[in-house]
Design goal:
The chain is of the alpha/beta class and about 600 residues long. It folds into three domains: about 240 residues, Aminohydrolase, N-terminal nucleophile (Ntn) domain (Glutamine Phosphoribosylpyrophosphate, subunit 1, domain 1, 4-Layer Sandwich); about 190 residues, Rossmann fold, CATH 3.40.50; about 150 residues, 3-Layer(aba) Sandwich (Rossmann fold), CATH 3.40.50.10490. It contains 18 helices and 25 strands. The strands form four sheets. The chain has an eight-stranded antiparallel sheet, with helices on one face. β2 and β3 form a beta hairpin. It binds 2-deoxy-2-amino glucitol-6-phosphate. The site of 2-deoxy-2-amino glucitol-6-phosphate has 14 residues, from α9.
């Protein structure tokens, strides 16, 4: 799971590569590297362990070059050290590559290539591709033929930018499963894992498909699949949705949390024209006709799916949600007309892609709900709904969780033809605005819980779902040990863990469970833990820690999770940790 960039032609190569890597480091930040041909066509390589900042500091401040490639890595094969860092160069130094993906048959290929005298320095699967490309190229000194042969031999996923040392006027590429885009400028051409690094230079792109390969040069794009030459299909992207400006914000997470009210308003505008919903009628019909709505997702998107299940059950539909990494290996097929809803911010999550392949191989209808236009999951779905949330850069998903739940609510409204969901969502945006005004109170709670040995999040019904998401968010960025429980479950075991160093956060948005939940809080307090109740204001108690305005109960999760995002944010800020890039994680999880 990595990010790659490449450029050729009249462009500031260093600036494009380094800026591009900064914008792709959501895909991994264990190491970064770049390679270019200098004015004498000498191959220069710079590698650094750690974030792109380190590479930026060690690479020459200026260099004359019109062809270069760059990489930011999330380690899969081999530790994050300099040897394993990309770019990788073939044994005879003829080819340099950067790679995003995983090669499944790399061991067998490595053994074979070693038999032909190829040597290997790193533990990576990528070095095998560099050597295989060189081996195949050397057969008849035709790079395109060498790439085609290599594609046939590789099993797994790859997006590659390839410099061939004796061909400085062409930057080669090949792609399967991992995303790769070409950006078209008049006197330069670009490559990148997504459109973001390129949007400052062009809004014309070619979104490459599986097993396509070719080269870009200053003037042209040459595209092939197998032995066929293809005409590149040019698409346009709007810069508005690819904006990376931080503005006055100290980091992306706080920027993205605060964007949530606008994201909800934009989503309403995209799916409701003031009178009627704007979803694809065929998609709505398909949902109505199905006998089972199955949600599949990972992490935060899975938590949003749990709300989807509640909405579908409210419509009287059979519905359930699965974690993608489980369903991918243990799928269940118990209905005649299933319809699958796949939620993914990135649209590139490998576990979910595996599920979608199974679903598509059975010819079943699937709807992708994603924030990323042109992503693998969006492209391969029967229907898709975009979340229009703008880029989400912080690893911790915030505004997109709210957008996912909001979209599911709008979809439910569209199925039922109940337009009042739009009014209910407007009330949510007001409640969120008020929370933003009162965020200082949440920071005060953060100060009281940040030294706890463990945090319990509890709730009942929708608040239990909010607890799960709150716990994930807190773990992910603050590294605190957190657990989420349905309020009533504590006494069935987990309460044994509670001591005076435990903190409890209880979400309380449901009148019908208010008393029961408050009893659960008392039970925990009696064991010495500190508790903090986040409650609807209509049934508040004097010692509640934070109050939120009432919203319709089916939307309460958005509001409670919003509070928890601030809470995780402030705890992490106080601990001085990297909020946007927590350890061991990457934004887009493109490995299983
Ligand atoms: C969210 O804060 C996490 N970083 C993570 O759980 C994420 O939601 C999960 O990896 C799924 O990603 P996706 O929505 O892009 O598929």
């Amino acid at each position: 799971m990595c990010g790659i960039v490449g450029s050729i032609g009249k462009i500031n190569t260093r600036k494009y590569l380094i800026d591009g890597l900064y914008s792709l480091d959501y895909r991994g930040y264990d190491s970064a590297g770049l390679a270019f041909l200098d004015s004498s066509n000498e191959l220069k390589i710079f590698k650094a362990v750690g974030k792109v900042e380190v590479l930026d500091s060690i690479a020459p401040k200026e260099f004359e070059s019109s062809i270069g490639i760059g990489h930011t890595r999330w380690a899969t094969h081999g530790a994050p050290n300099e040897t394993n860092c990309h770019p990788h160069v073939s044994s005879h130094k003829e080819i340099a590559i950067v790679h995003n993906g995983v090669i499944e048959n790399y061991r067998a290929l490595k053994t074979r290539l070693m038999g032909y005298g190829y040597s290997f320095e790193s533990e990576t699967d990528t070095e095998v591709i560099a050597n295989l490309l060189e081996f195949n190229y050397r057969k008849n000194h035709d790079v395109l033929d060498g790439i085609r042969r290599t594609i046939d031999e590789l099993e797994g996923s790859f997006a590659l930018a390839i410099i061939v040392k004796d061909q400085p006027d062409r930057l080669y590429f090949m792609k399967r499963s991992s995303p790769l885009f070409i950006g078209l400028g008049d006197e330069y051409k670009l490559l990148a894992s997504d459109a973001v690094p390129m949007i400052k230079y062009t809004n014309k792109f070619v979104d490459l498909k599986d097993d396509e390969y070719g080269y870009i040069s200053k003037e042209e794009v040459a595209l092939f699949k197998g032995y066929d030459k293809l005409e590149p299909e040019i698409t346009h992207q709007s810069p508005e949705f690819l904006n990376r400006d931080l503005g006055d914000n100290p980091n992306y997470m706080i920027k993205e949390i605060q964007e949530t009210p606008q994201v909800i308003t934009r989503l309403i505008d995209n799916y409701f024209d003031g009178e009627k919903f704007l979803f694809n009628p065929k998609m709505i019909e398909a949902i109505k006709k199905s006998d089972d709505i199955i949600f599949i997702a990972c992490g935060t998107s899975y938590h949003a799916s749990l709300m989807g299940v509640k909405y579908m059950q409210y419509l009287g539909k059979r519905s359930e949600a699965y974690v993608a990494s489980e369903w991918a290996y243990f799928p269940v097929f118990t209905s005649k007309k299933p319809l699958y809803i796949l939620l993914s911010q990135s649209g590139e999550t490998a576990d979910l892609i595996r599920c979608q392949k199974i679903i598509n191989s059975r010819g079943s209808i699937n709807i992708a709900i994603t924030n990323t236009k042109g992503s693998t999951i969006e492209r391969n779905a029967t229907f898709s709904c975009l979340l229009f949330s703008g880029l989400e850069i912080a690893v911790a998903s915030t505004k997109v969780f709210s957008a996912q739940v909001c979209l599911l609510a709008l979809l439910t409204g569209a199925i039922e033809k109940h337009t009042n969901v739009v009014t209910h969502l407007s009330v949510v945006t007001s409640a969120l605005e008020k929370i933003i005004e009162n965020k200082q109170d949440i920071e005060n709670i953060a100060s009281k819980i940040e030294n706890a040995s463990m945090i319990f999040f509890i709730g009942r019904g929708n608040d239990y779902i909010a607890s799960m998401e709150a716990s994930l968010k807190m773990k992910e960025i603050s590294y605190m040990h957190c657990e989420a429980f349905a309020g009533g479950e504590l006494k069935h075991g987990p309460i044994a863990l509670v001591d005076k160093d435990t903190c409890l956060i209880a979400f309380n948005s449901d009148m019908s469970t208010n008393l029961a939940l408050r009893n659960n809080v008392k039970e925990i307090e009696a064991r010495g833990a500190k508790s903090f109740v986040i409650s609807y204001s209509s049934f508040m108690k004097d010692d509640d820690a934070f109050l939120v305005d009432n919203v319709k109960s089916y939307l309460s999760t958005i509001v409670m999770v919003f509070v928890s995002q601030y809470l995780a944010y402030y705890v992490t800020l106080h601990k001085g940790l990297n909020i946007d890039k927590p350890r061991n994680l990457a934004k887009s999880v493109t490995v299983e």
